[in-house]
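Exercise 7. Given the encoded structure of a 438-residue chain, write a plausible sequence.
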């Protein structure tokens, strides 16, 4: 039997049959033993009575006769030596000519009295054994039925888990399993339900992510294809088409970089370094990097930074600041301003842009949320920049939040583990964070 239910049933049934067989055998042996004991007691009493009679009326004539299936032998002690020890009384069993006898011996002066009764099955022995076997058989059948039901009750929840696991592997969403049965089976069902819930959530997130990425890739690809076909047909000015294709290509490149960053962070091997980072120097560095972009956007970009040290990964913090500054520049109209501040253990990027609605603040770091909502209304990035910021800051044991009101700009605040201001060699600082004037 290859099924669990069959094996459980076979194992329980085998144990029951063995138990019944042992019970019948032990019962028969005990019954036989009791019958032999009763025979010995009865034969010993009879021997005592006959010995008392012989002592009262002594006779020296050898006797050997049969009385009620009991052989009575009275002979001189020397002749009794071939049966028993003639000098002392004894009760027991012996074998003569292949027949087993229960005996009782009593010495009477110079003679001995020996009573022999063949050891036979008790009266009704066959009926007794038959009844015992019938009772054992009925018990075995009832036990087999109970074991079959018990095996089914054990296997049924496991089969439900197996069927649900198969459905889950095939991409389905099985119903939650009931938490009944023994503690172990209930724990198994609960573990499966938790796994199923997590897998459904993971599949939904992956599905939404792929849909969002597909949507994001479709727009620039459509534009590039349209302008390429238009150039071939002479419908567009080559310079205008080239500028548009270049913009859309950069947009694709930015999306690919964001996806690669996100994929690296989702890997288990992703780690960040822990080192002293000068937020003031980093703020000035990120402003210098984006100064040309800010001038193209017509936005004033400057840093307000002093000595501010944290424990983090310099390159990752620079990536966080760059993403926040890029978002701020895109969200700020011409004539506005973006400020990068470093103070204590915080890095703040604030702008005078369009801001966010109150309901959007809580979901600002969700993948593609702001892109899906504002992509048709204002310049936005790939939709992954703020999600990357959140994961990087969390990996560095920090925290990031945003405060904003519609039409009044937004302020992103990054808090990182602080360190005490330490003396750092000037050459090391100059090598790691070149001085820049903004």
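Solution.
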């Amino acid at each position: 039997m290859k099924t669990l239910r069959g094996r459980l049933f076979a194992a329980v049934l085998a144990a029951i049959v063995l138990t019944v067989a042992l019970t019948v055998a032990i019962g028969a042996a005990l019954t036989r033993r009791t019958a032999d004991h009763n025979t010995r007691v009865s034969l010993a009493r009879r021997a005592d009575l006959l010995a008392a009679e012989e002592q009262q009326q002594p006779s020296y004539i050898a006797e050997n006769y049969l009385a009620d299936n009991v052989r009575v032998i009275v002979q001189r002690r020397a002749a009794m030596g071939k049966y028993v020890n003639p000098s002392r009384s004894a009760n027991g069993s012996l074998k003569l000519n292949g027949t087993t006898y229960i005996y009782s011996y009593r010495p009477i002066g110079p003679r001995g009295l020996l009573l022999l009764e063949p050891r036979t099955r008790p009266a009704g022995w066959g009926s007794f054994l038959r009844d015992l076997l019938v009772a054992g058989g009925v018990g075995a059948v009832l036990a087999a039925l109970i074991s079959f039901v018990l095996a089914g009750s054990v296997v049924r929840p496991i089969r439900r888990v197996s069927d649900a696991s198969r459905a889950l592997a095939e991409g389905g969403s099985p119903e939650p399993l009931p938490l009944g049965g023994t503690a172990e089976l209930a724990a198994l069902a609960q573990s499966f339900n938790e796994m199923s819930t997590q897998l459904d959530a993971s599949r939904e997130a992956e599905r939404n992510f792929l849909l969002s990425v597909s949507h994001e890739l479709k727009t620039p690809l459509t534009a590039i294809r349209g302008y390429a076909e238009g150039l071939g047909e002479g419908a567009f000015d080559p310079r205008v088409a080239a500028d548009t294709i270049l913009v859309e290509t950069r947009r694709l490149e930015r999306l690919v970089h964001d996806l690669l960053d996100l994929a690296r962070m989702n890997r288990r091997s992703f780690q960040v370094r822990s080192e002293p980072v000068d937020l003031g120097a980093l703020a000035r560095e990120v402003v210098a990097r984006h100064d040309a972009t800010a001038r193209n956007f017509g936005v004033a970009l400057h840093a307000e930074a002093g000595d501010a040290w944290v424990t983090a990964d310099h390159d990752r913090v620079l990536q966080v600041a760059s993403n926040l500054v890029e978002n701020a520049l895109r969200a700020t109209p011409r004539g506005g301003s973006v400020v990068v501040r470093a103070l204590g253990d915080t890095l703040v990027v604030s702008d005078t842009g369009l801001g966010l609605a109150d309901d959007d603040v809580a979901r600002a770091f969700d993948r593609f949320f702001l892109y899906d909502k504002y992509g048709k209304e204002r310049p936005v990035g790939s939709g992954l920049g703020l999600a990357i910021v959140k994961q990087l800051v969390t990996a560095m044991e920090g925290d990031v939040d945003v405060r904003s009101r519609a039409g009044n700009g937004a302020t992103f605040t990054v808090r990182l583990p602080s360190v005490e201001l330490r003396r750092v060699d000037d050459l090391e600082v100059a090598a790691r964070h070149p001085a820049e004037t903004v």
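Remark. The chain has a mean pLDDT of 77. Students should compare their own answers with the one above.
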